[in-house]
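From the shared-data thread, chain only:
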Amino acid sequence: MHEKDLHTIIMKIGRYFILLILVIPVLILRDFTPNNELKYLSIVDEALRDGHFFTFYHQGELYADKPPLYFWLLMLSKWIWGEYNMFGLSLFSIIPALISIYIMNKWVEEDTTASLRWSGSLMLFTSAFFIGSGLVLRMDMLMCMFILLALYTFYKRYSGKGQPKDRFLLPFYIFMAIFSKGPVGFIVPLITMLVFLLVKRDVRSFCRYFGWREWGILSGFCAIWFLGIYLEGGSTYLNNLLFHQTINRAIDSFDHKKAFWYYGVTFWYSVAPWSILYITTIVIAIKKKLLTTDKEKLFLSAIVSTFVILSMFSGKLDIYMLPLFPFFTYLTILLLPKIKEKWIAFSVYIPVIALTIAPIVAFFIRNKFNVPDSPFIYVAIITLFIFSLTACYLLYRKQMYRAINCAALGILATLFTGAFALPRINPYIGFTAMATEANHIRKEENIHHYYYYKFRGGENMDVYLHEEATKISTEDSLFNIYRKGDCMIFVKEKNVMRSPALSNWIQQTHHEKIGNFYLIHPTLNTSSLYDQP
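Structure, as tokens:
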């Protein structure tokens, strides 16, 4: 290997390593969120306890919302670490995010410079919902990665650069996308391929890329999966997965039902701070007919077709658009060198100025949030201000790409420094601190039951408590349960503040204040409380 080639490889690896390093503190120091992440862990615990691997349940209720791949990875992580380790679990999101960036860089390598691809990497990685999906425990980034692999494989075959193994890999990647999240993993690549071939006036060749062999491979994988579900969960579970969670969600969703124009609104903040740049670049390019290559047409086909199809579905969430974000970023990267309009620079000015103002606003409203103060928060605010101000100066000097890089690195540096404040903020984010204290008290006192009063995600505390926590819905029930003297009750602070009776009662109980929660437990002398409130 030549010294120049080795240097190039080191530079490529080094850039991905930089992206990873800048988010590692968040991955290590953050607590689990109660409503989603802790829910997944609770589902996995139940599956491991009951010996289910294809069918899943949450607190005994059927849970066919998600395919098994991500849950299998969570199971694997617990087997490796012996517990649920935030950093280990986060790798199942952040690594697919970095692989997705690698795929897109590889895809546009022939048409762009290394510096332009670095700008693309930074833009995509710092897009709000992309980096958000890379930092939380969700299966969306896995699906995104497999969709990109599927479409990249299709493009290689279309452009004559494919290999015999790609005939197997294309349907395999589509199946893995389905197996990660659901039908979107099938819809996005298939619709994109069809629309692209329609644009190329070559739709008849679709069977050349996805013919009987590819359909057979995809159907074979699905058949094995569905058979596993039927043998383990029966026809009820299979029917729920194939119809209730797919057709019903698409036609008349029972959850996340939104209007047709929903994504037209959410797009602007989903890929912030680069949304204005993306739209401006693509609109100018379409107007001036600058989309000339097959690659550019395929990227635009993915954006338009998926945007329209997902908008037609009844059930919508911001995160469903995640597979489009790489195409928005890298289509912009392909088109920018062709465009000379001043509007392009202006579309970068807006978010950069907003990022410069944001730290100033954050400094003055920092006390409005009910979280502990930390010097790392101030360091993060100053870091974002310095980087954003520098980006403004670079724009003034007409160095747009360097300004983009500077602003993006400023966002990542802010995450890096601000993450060190998380140990003090975690009790206000998740349940770990509260559950740890509850387990400690349980060992010292005669406590047999756990209850929680009217807050979301409380049932998922069984991950920490290793016992079911029962929901209390009324104040009368809360007071009556406390009189039993063998229980622990979790009450959220905002519920106490809203009720004078509850506030007065809390002051007369033996309790601990942890984050936003009161942890109430009995003492030897509770008789004085029996008639309260």
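The longest strand covers residues 487-492.
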